[in-house]
Design the sequence.
């Protein structure tokens, strides 16, 4: 398996300086990496996660590094908790400039064997969670005159794989949610874009890897489906999220950005 080329991180330049950012699923993996990148570039970050402990851990790491962050337990499948999350950010910092809808679950299986509770949980978190996030933050962004919403879908929102029928359906919904929000609010200065990561080295993929022969087997054969020949790293996705959150992406809305090591180019 190829390993990522290691390059020194560029010095912070304040790409989201003083922007108030809310990141869901910030307790681990891609979400944690996104929270760190936004904070490194000057953002004030509300780190939300189902686990209060991991949310606070991410926030503590950011604070220890000189950034500004708070951690909060949020179940994104609850509209009331999502509303309260956004209101907490507004109460703390006065507004919300950036929302990253990252929280998600991947509960693989053959469709005819998937029970109702797994279907419900997948749709509640991956679809309703992002809908609730957008709905909660948009009124504040309208008042402020704009903002950036970054949804995290998956390469499986564009192409599917074995055992991922329900997951793929939920991630396809994320792509279309993004396009709808982008069109509805483009004249009001709200941008909405979606990232579709390929196979990234995070625990969310472990259950799927088990069904494919184990994580070691997947990584040994990864160039058969991900041409770059290695899994992505969370920070590589976070770098793209930072760009979309920043004013550098001011001409982008409704864009579907595949960050997948060439997977969907085949």
Sequence:
């Amino acid at each position: 398996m190829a390993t990522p080329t290691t390059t020194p991180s560029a010095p912070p330049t304040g790409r989201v300086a003083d922007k108030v950012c809310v990141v869901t699923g910030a307790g681990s993996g891609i979400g944690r990496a996104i929270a760190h990148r936004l904070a490194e570039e000057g953002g004030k970050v509300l780190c939300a996660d189902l686990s209060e402990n991991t949310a606070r851990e991410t926030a503590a790491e950011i604070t220890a590094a000189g950034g500004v962050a708070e951690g909060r337990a949020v179940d994104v499948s609850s509209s009331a908790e999502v509303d309260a999350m956004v209101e907490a950010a507004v109460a703390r910092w006065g507004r919300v400039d950036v929302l990253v809808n990252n929280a998600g679950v991947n509960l693989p299986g053959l469709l005819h064997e998937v029970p109702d509770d797994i279907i419900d949980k997948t749709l509640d978190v991956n679809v309703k969670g992002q809908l609730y996030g957008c709905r909660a933050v948009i009124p504040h962004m309208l008042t402020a005159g704009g903002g950036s919403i970054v949804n995290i879908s998956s390469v499986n929102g564009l192409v599917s794989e074995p055992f991922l029928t329900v997951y793929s359906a939920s991630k396809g919904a994320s792509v279309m949610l993004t396009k709808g929000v982008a069109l509805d609010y483009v004249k009001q200065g709200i941008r909405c874009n979606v990232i579709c990561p390929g196979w990234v080295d995070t625990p969310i993929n472990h259950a799927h890897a088990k069904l494919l022969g184990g994580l070691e087997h997947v990584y040994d054969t990864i160039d058969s489906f991900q041409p770059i020949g290695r899994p992505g790293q969370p920070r590589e996705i976070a770098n793209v999220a930072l760009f979309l959150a920043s004013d550098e992406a001011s001409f982008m809305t409704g864009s579907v950005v595949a960050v997948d090591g060439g997977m969907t180019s085949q």
About this structure: The domain at 20-258 is CATH 3.40.50.720 (Rossmann fold). The first helix runs from residue 29 to 40. The chain has one domain: 20-258. The beta strands are 20-24, 44-49, 68-73, 98-101, 147-152, 190-197, 256-259.
